Amino acid sequence: MQTKEFDPYISYLAGHLTPARLQHSLGVMRVMQELASIYGLDSITAQTAGLLHDAGKELTQGQMIEIARAIHFPLIIPSDRDPLFLHGPASAYVAAHDLGIDDPLILEAIFRHSFIGTGQVQSPVFCWCLRFADFLEPGRDWDEAHDRLQPLIYSGNMAEAALGLMDWLIPFLQSMQLAPHPGQFVLRQKLLQYLEDGTNEVGFDQIPV
Ligand SMILES: [Fe+2]
Ligand SMILES: [Fe+2]
User: Fold this and answer.
1) Among all ligands shown, which has an atom nearest to the Cα of 134?
2) Which ligand has an atom closest to residue 113 CA?
3) Ligand 1 centroid to residue 151 C-alpha, Å
4) Fewer Cβ close by (within 10 Å): the C or N end of the chain?
């Protein structure tokens, strides 16, 4: 359900994203609302992150690189400059600077949703929910993976679902002739280790992001 407080964001996105990407963003917002109740997130916060997660997706690569410089985000390897990955930090910047978002949970989840950046986050659960919502959004056309992963995600099996998402995403990118970010391979390994260690049995506070 939409509330009036999202209207200014939707107006902004309508002026900065293609109609298809705006629909995608609204879809991710709706899935975030569902995941919020499953994973104990604040509903408005979750929906806001979903709505704004791709706010900077249609900036040029040059603009994204400028933003990276402005926030001192190190561009170390070629993948770091690829808009496929760099649009996460760029979208977080747009959300903060153009839309006045200051909630660190929202900003870190948007920043990290494109599998870039390292280090601890405040809420690994929130970050993974945004990645799941981005994947599950009904406008996507990934039926087989969707049917396999949706039950895991909706039953609260976050760690298995996260590993399942990486096991699907890495070969999917390769099949599209897109090079996965090296950090995605590292993340997959960390998730395997996390599941092997059984850390997930005491909650998802430490799940690798
Ligand atoms: Fe994205
Ligand atoms: Fe997206």
Assistant:
1) 2
2) 1
3) 22
4) N
If you measure from the C-alpha of residue 197 to the centroid of ligand 1, how many angstroms do you get, rounded to a whole number? 30
208 domain-assigned: no
Q: Where in the sequence is the domain holding 154, given as residue range(s)?
A: 4-202
Cβ neighbours for 157, distance < 8 A, ≥ 6 positions apart: none
User: Ligand 2: distance of its center to the CA of 197 in Å?
Assistant: 31
Q: Is residue 113 part of a domain?
A: yes
SS3 content of the chain, % helix, strand, coil (to 5): 70, 0, 30
Walk along the chain (209 residues) and give the pLDDT tens digit of each residue: 557 899 999 999 999 999 999 999 999 999 999 999 999 999 999 999 999 999 999 999 999 999 999 999 999 999 999 999 999 999 999 999 999 999 999 999 999 999 999 999 999 999 999 999 999 998 888 888 999 999 999 999 999 999 999 999 999 999 999 999 999 999 999 999 999 998 767 778 899 99
Question: Which letter, b or e, does each residue of 155-165 get, where b requires 16 or more Cβ atoms within 10 Å of its Cβ?
Answer: eebbbbbbbbb
Nearest-ligand number for the alpha carbon of 58 = 1
Give 166 Cα–ligand 1 centroid separation in angstroms. 15
**How many distinct structural domains can be found in the chain?**
1
Asked whether residue 209 is assigned to any structural domain, the reply reads no
